[in-house]
Amino acid sequence: MNASADREPLAHGSLADTPLCHAALYVFRRNQTGTLLVITPSAGEATIRFLRGRATAAIVPWPAKRLLDGLLPLCGMREGQFGFYADDIINEGDPVVSGVVDPHELLIASLDEHARDDMVEQVLQRFAGSQLRLAPGCELERLRLRPEHKPLIDLIRAAPAGVDELVAQAPLPPIQTRRLLYALIASHMITSHEGREGEAFRSQVEPSATRAQSPAVGTPAAWQQLASLRPSANGSARPAPAAPATSMRPAGNSLRSSPRSSLQPSNPAASDRPSAASSVRPVSIAPGEDKASRLKRADQLLQRGRPEEALAEAEALLGEDPNDVELMALRAQALFEKHQVHPEGIPKTVLDAIKRALDADPEHPRALYIKGLVFKRGGELKKAVGYFRRVLQADPKHLEAQREIRLAKLRISSGKES
Question: What domain range includes position 339?
Answer without folding.
Answer: 291-413
